[in-house]
Amino acid sequence: MNQLQSMGMQPSPFKGFLIRFLAFMIDIVVTLIAVFAAAIVFGIFFGSLFGGEAGFGVGLIIFILAALAAQFLYKPLMEASEYQGTVGKITLGMKVVDKNGQRITVAKSFIRTIVYIIENAIPFGSLAFLIIAFTDENQGLHDMAAETYVVSKYWQGPIPLQDNFGA
């Protein structure tokens, strides 16, 4: 029994800003590798099909489409899967759950991802991500919108939420 448990307190299951930012950086590397690999394969294929500048243009379009597909599919499908997280989160021992501590649905995962993309697309959007460091449950706007939580991969059971009304 650790000191927190002896005082009747449980350690927080929530993962904070810095470790989530590191997971984000790992995910950027993973998606860039996948997108560049897809762009090279499709670029070679379409370049040989169309030749010259036309092939380059088609390859560029394919690259953009692959990047968009990676952005819209990677996070939601990984987070709603049995892994409950992206490669970055899995590597760093995290998972995404709902308030009952269960795997999130694909619908919640897509809501989370769409809000996340909007956060990063608007000016000062990174400030919306920074609020993770200042909320009780370490939630970003994308977590709040989808009612999700990022916790230790070892966490089991419902999320211990603050009621914000007690003394």
Question: Which descriptors apply to this entry?
Answer:
167 residues; 5% strand; 2 strands
Notes on the protein architecture:
The longest helix has 34 residues, at 17-50. The chain contains 7 helices and 2 strands. The protein has one domain (13-152). Helix content is 59%, strand content 5%. The relative contact order is 0.15. It has 167 residues and is mainly alpha-helical. It has a two-stranded antiparallel sheet. Mean pLDDT is 83; it is low at 4-8.
Summarize the structure.
It contains seven helices and two strands. The protein is mainly α and 167 residues long. Strands 1-2 form a two-stranded antiparallel sheet.
